[in-house]
Write a structure and sequence with these properties.
CATH architecture of one domain: Orthogonal Bundle
Radius of gyration: 38 Å
Helix content: 55-70%
Number of helices: 10
Distance between the termini: 157 Å
Order of helices and strands: HHHHHHHHHH
CATH topology of one domain: Non-ribosomal Peptide Synthetase Peptidyl Carrier Protein, Chain A
Shape: elongated
Number of strands: 0
């Protein structure tokens, strides 16, 4: 019976070296891939401030960035990074409450995926009435005539549940300053939105007509001023006392 071959010390050393080379090669390849990944340019998400139309794109961009740039980060770091892009208004208070719950370990959010779900549930779903109310609170006259503003206001009002005094105040809020001042000077108080709208349209029409007349009058005065000759009590020529 033959004896099993026993590797010589040289063979053992050679095998160890080959194993070490393979391990080092694997580490180098891993480092190279990580460097390549870090060079990939990925757009960061825009700051999220609660607008309904921003929810889907914010979640998508944040998720994409995390998958490419932050896969090695722990969940709490990923969650904190996403929360840093939630700023302003009601979302700021919502974020502060969530951070407080996380600090006390009372939050249901344990991963960035759960955070995305929470964001979509809180800010991505809204009723038609809520959308109308949000539009109503932001509509302004700006460059429109009062009649154009009134028609836009009526369209937004439908389905908003606004009525009575609150509806009147929202209508007045969106008017330009000059019209609001004219309304404040009016003596007769009005009680319905329809009468307020009629008065506003009438004031706007009169104001615009007045501006047109002032421009026409200004041009006429300028024309007359350029052609007129200065005159005293009379124009004298020839002998003194003879009026020509």
């Amino acid at each position: 019976m033959s004896r099993p071959l026993v590797p010589t010390p040289l063979q053992t050393r050679e095998k160890q070296l080959l194993t070490m080379i393979a391990t080092l090669q694997q580490q180098v390849n891993t480092m190279f891939l990580q460097q390549q990944e870090s060079r990939v340019e990925v757009a960061r998400p825009q700051v999220f401030s609660r607008k309904i139309e921003e929810v889907s794109i914010f979640v998508y961009m944040a998720c994409l960035y995390i998958r490419i740039k932050m896969t090695e980060e722990v969940a709490v770091t990923q969650v904190a990074w996403v929360l840093s892009y939630i700023q302003g208004g009601i979302v700021e208070a919502w974020k502060d409450n969530l951070l407080d719950e996380l600090a006390k370990e009372e939050s249901e959010v344990e991963s960035v995926e759960q955070l995305f779900t929470k964001i979509k549930n809180n800010f991505g779903k809204t009723s038609e009435e809520e959308r109308k109310i949000e539009q109503l609170r932001t509509i302004e006259q700006e460059g429109r005539t009062c009649n154009e503003y009134m028609q836009k206001f009526k369209k937004v009002t439908r389905g908003s549940s606004y009525e009575g005094r609150s509806l009147i105040e929202e209508f007045k809020r969106g008017l330009n300053g000059s019209i609001r001042r004219k309304l404040a000077e009016a003596e007769e108080p009005l009680t319905t939105i329809g009468k307020w709208q009629e008065r506003v349209v009438r004031l706007d029409r009169n104001q615009r007509q007045s501006r047109i007349e002032e421009r026409i009058l200004g041009r006429n005065v300028a024309c007359l001023g350029g052609n007129a000759q200065p005159r005293g009590e009379g124009s004298y020529g020839g002998r003194e006392g003879q009026i020509t």
